[in-house]
Amino acid sequence: MIMMKNYIVLFALYLLNSFFCSTLRAQSVYDTYNFFRENIIKYTGINEESNSHLYNKKSNPACSLKINFFYPEKSFNLSNYEKIQSLFIAGFFGEEYKDLQPKDAVKAYSKNYIRNYKEQLEKSGLYKKERKEAQTRGEDISEISSFYSYEKIIRNTILYNKGNIVSQVVNTYEYTGGAHGSSTTRGIIIDLHAGRRIEFDDVFDGNADQQISDLLLSNLLLARKFSDKDALYEAGFDFDVLHLTDNFIVDDKGVTFIYDQYELGAYALGTVEIFVPYWELVPYMKRTSAIAKLVRIDKMEN
Q1: Beta strand pairing status for 62-72 and 150-162?
Q2: Are residue 190 and residue 253 in the same domain, yes or no?
Q3: For residue range 134-148, what is the model confidence (pLDDT) as tens digits?
Q4: How many domains is the chain built from?
Q5: How far out from the chain centre does Cα 219 lie?
Q6: Do strands 248-250 and 196-197 pair parallel, antiparallel, or not at all (unpaired)?
Q7: Which backbone phi and psi does 135 adopt, to 5 degrees?
Q8: DSSP E strands: which ranges in the chain?
Q9: Rounded (5°) CA angle 162-164-169
Q10: Is the same domain home to 58 and 87?
Q11: 58: CB partners within 8 A, 6+ apart
Q12: Please, are residues 151 and 158 in contact by the beta-carbon 8 Å criterion?
């Protein structure tokens, strides 16, 4: 009977040991492929359009605001969803809106946009002054109306949603008079597990600025199929050293650095995106960063 009990105890220990070993192996496999696992998050969106005419007269110029905002809903898969939601709001509208609920942030942003437009052109008397001067000169009033009809379009797009990482861009187009409008693209990377935004200094070694700049230049030349910097200058680029930017996004293949209009040269260049694969960036990444851990750069080096 005693021997039977011993066998039962040993067998139980064997099963327990097997369970822990299999769990550790499963965890190891999970860690290895974690970067490629889809985050279980349900997103919802708000589409808002606001218009307001100067002096509330339809024949006068107006401002137009269009918002397409996507953000995570309340979820049992996100224990810190309120913090994540706040990061989405701050990245889209600005830090001053981060403590508001999504719908309240949309309303507040729209209200402020209209107020600023009217303060600039209505309360200042600028529009009436310009209109009167144009009439005195015998000019077409419709041109004045077109010049002072402002427009703004903001939207965010989720580009990567895996391994506790959300990588998105916020695109903004704005016209405030002049020959043309301006566009910006802002990259935002959020660590869902830590509940914080990932910045450049979180990912890259602070002593490797020159090396990363060289990588950016070589990949820009490669993407444009140029042989040297002279060809870049001829295409409208204008820089001595390709400066680093905190404006970037990530996916399972590498990092895309984003430069807005005028940052690297002529307006006609538009937004310039430079993709650099992880295997080139490995030597310059901090091992403690969320990106480094998820892509397992230690494995990539071997």
Answers
A1: parallel
A2: no
A3: 888 888 777 788 889
A4: 3
A5: 21
A6: unpaired
A7: -65, -40
A8: 43-53, 62-72, 150-162, 165-175, 182-191, 196-197, 248-250, 254-259, 272-277
A9: 65
A10: yes
A11: none
A12: no
